[in-house]
Amino acid sequence: MAHVLFNCFALLTIAGAVGVVANKNTVNAAMCFLLSLVGLAGLFVQLDAYLLAFVLLLVYAGAVVALFLFIIMLLDTQGRQKWDFSKLAVFTSLVAFGLLLAGLGTFVKRGQLEAPNPNAAGGVGAALKPYAYQLFTTYLLPVEVMGFLLLVAMLGVIVLSRKAGAGEDAP
Amino acid sequence: MDFSALQALAASNDWMAIFPEVLLGCLALALLVLEIVLPKSLHSSLPGVALFGVLAILPSQLLSFSVGFIEGDSFNGLLHHSYEGQVMRVFFLLAAVLTCLLGTVSLPRQRVPRTEFYHIVLVVTAAMMLLAQSNHFVMLFVALETVTIGFYILVSYFRGSPASLEAGLKYLVMGALSSAVLLFGIVLLYGVSGNPMLAEHTATGMNFDSLSGFLAAHPHDFLASVGIVLVLSGVAFKIGAFPFQIWVPDVYQGAPTPVTAFLAVGSKAAGFIVLLVLARTFSAYAWLTVPVLTLMAGATLLFGNLAALTQHNVKRLIGLSGVSHAGFLLLGVVAAATVPLGYGAVYFYLFAYLLASYAVFGVMAHVAGPDDADQELAHYAGLYKERPFLALVLAIGLGSLAGIPPLAGFMGKLFIFIATFRAGHYGLLGIAVVSVVISIYYYFSWIRAAFFESWTPPADEASARPAPTPVGLTAGVILGVLAACTVILGCYQGPLGMWLSGR
């Protein structure tokens, strides 16, 4: 049963990812991204990482994809011409793709992990309570730094997107 | 509910250990508050508050050398306060002071908000200081992202200029890519070291000490070596080493001059201290890291110098020469794997680079016109006749960057070469010597423009040269001090030299 479910979710993830790249309609591409995330969340649930699955759905599916859709609708990207690749670009991307395949091949061949012990203890990210304890004791400093990161990001949005002439100091 | 366990866990959250960073954060927040509270007529004093505020924090950082945190851990092993880490904290504070100073010269020429610039510079500095002491991948990544996101904004800060926005976008895309690569490597290392089927597996694989113990027990694990290469590649993006240097010229040219300086010195130094710490953590995999870094160093040296030869825009030139300096520093990192002198050589080189680079960037900020991306070599013609002080500072800075004997840059290169020689990398040493010779050519074409050429106004108005900004008192004093320190550090190394030989 677990194998069947794994295969289903893995297929969903990969099909969604392919859909994002292959779809010409950007709204459909965003929806495919959502599909891929749902598959990924399913895989996380199978690994007993419920919190991670939940956060993934909440943050990405809930917030990020909605943001994508807003931007797509604001920009109105429909009906642009197809990409025109130069010969050099095609050649380089083929080489890069070959390298990627080779890397993936080695990974599959040599990167096998032994089957893990089924009785191993779950990580701290598996459930909300131990995760929260860790976050506010062991990892308190990164959380505080994160606050400054968000402040800087917010300031950046204000500075870079403010209407020209408003709140600026004249030269 | 048992709180004692939580208290025990939180007991090592020792905020006194990161006192200077906390002060920097408070100063950054105070700047934003002051902008709201103060009347508009006093807003011009805010850059001064930032500059002298950081200068006031410097002594408190110097005090931390004597407090009992040295060579100890805090925050449950997230931070390790090594002696080198303390030295680098001083380095980043100095870089922040000098960046604020350049900001007071460059920003008034543009229609941009001022206070936010200094706020972001201070936060980025604090994050770099934490980065220099991080002993845990979570801390490292959070601090690195704070630095990077701050730089995304700083690079595109002159948003009226298309070049600045283009640079910001390029830096954003490349930065996001490099973060993804770094993160993938970290995840692989964490996953492998946490595998319960392997001996010496550890639940805290993000901690450098635990990870280093695991790696020593499995010196030829395939997944771990992939992870190590990915982590090193992620860091190489930040320092602009060879296969990952494509963003450097465009971003350096488009970014505002103070930001270019901060990016060249601060961001690069942060990358190198991370690289040194990681190289020590991965010491069991020296069979992998030393060849990878050796190849990277050789290619970086050759690429940086050969590409800089053909540049006419001084910001692109200094960017590509920065790539070659990353090559010299990588030489030190490679040597440090076997020769302890390598560590000291890298730190000394970084200090010499800081002094010389900010001297040059200081002159660039004064010579630049309203279009910050347009700074040609030709604009420097006749600088010596018009502004002898700026020309002299420029000559000392460039001479030090090129490695001319009585200056600090020469000693830095000498230490690196000695370490490389002792480590037995003779091929690399040959490439490095050739690179020095090439670099002298393009640095001296800049000096020649400033001293020996005279400016003939072109017929068309469009390519007219901007008039240099007058040198203010603070800027003049600090530029003079930078040039003097470059000369003094070249002739007499003092405590820094002692610290080098004492290792």
* Class computed from helices, strands and strand pairing of chain B: mainly alpha
Number of self-contained structural domains of chain B: 1
| Oligomeric state of shown chains | heterodimer
Largest interface: A-B, 38 and 52 residues
**What is the C-alpha radius of gyration of chain A, as a whole number of Å?**
22 Å
**Helix/strand/pairing category of chain A:** mainly alpha
**Helical content of chain A (DSSP H or I, runs of 4+):** over 70%
Number of helices of chain A: 6
Strand coverage percent of chain A: under 5%
Low-confidence runs of chain B: none
Strand content of chain B: under 5%
Q: What average pLDDT do the residues of chain B reach?
A: 86
Order of helices and strands of chain B: HHHEEHHHHHHHHHHHHHHHHH
Which whole number gives the mean pLDDT of chain A?
82
Number of strands of chain B: 2
What is the CATH architecture term of the domain at 1-78 in chain A?
Up-down Bundle
Largest sheet of chain A: none
Explain briefly what this protein structure is.
With 171 residues, chain A is mainly alpha-helical.
Give structural notes.
The complex is a heterodimer of chains A (171) and B (503). Chain A is mostly helical. Chain A has 6 helices and no strands. The radius of gyration of chain A is 22 Å and the shape is extended. The N and C termini of chain A lie far apart (69 Å). The model of chain A has no long low-confidence stretch (mean pLDDT 82). Chain B has one domain (15-457, 468-501). The longest helix of chain B is centred in the middle third of the chain and has 32 residues, at 162-193. Chain B is globular. The mean pLDDT of chain B is 86. The interface between A and B is large, with 38 and 52 residues.
Which helices and strands appear, and what pairs or packs with what?
The complex is a heterodimer of chains A (171) and B (503).
Chain A: H1 2-22, H2 26-46, H3 50-75, H4 87-110, H5 128-136, H6 140-161
Helix pairs in contact in A: 1-2, 2-3
Chain B: H1 3-10, H2 19-37, H3 46-63, E1 72-74, E2 79-81, H4 83-106, H5 115-133, H6 137-155, H7 162-193, H8 208-217, H9 222-239, H10 248-254, H11 257-281, H12 286-308, H13 314-336, H14 341-367, H15 383-386, H16 388-402, H17 408-423, H18 426-451, H19 473-491, H20 494-501
Antiparallel strand pairs in B: 1-2
Helix pairs in contact in B: 2-3, 2-5, 3-4, 3-5, 4-5, 4-11, 4-14, 5-6, 5-11, 6-7, 6-11, 7-9, 7-10, 9-11, 10-11, 10-13, 11-13, 11-14, 12-13, 12-18, 13-14, 13-17, 13-18, 14-16, 14-17, 14-19, 14-20, 16-18, 16-19, 17-19
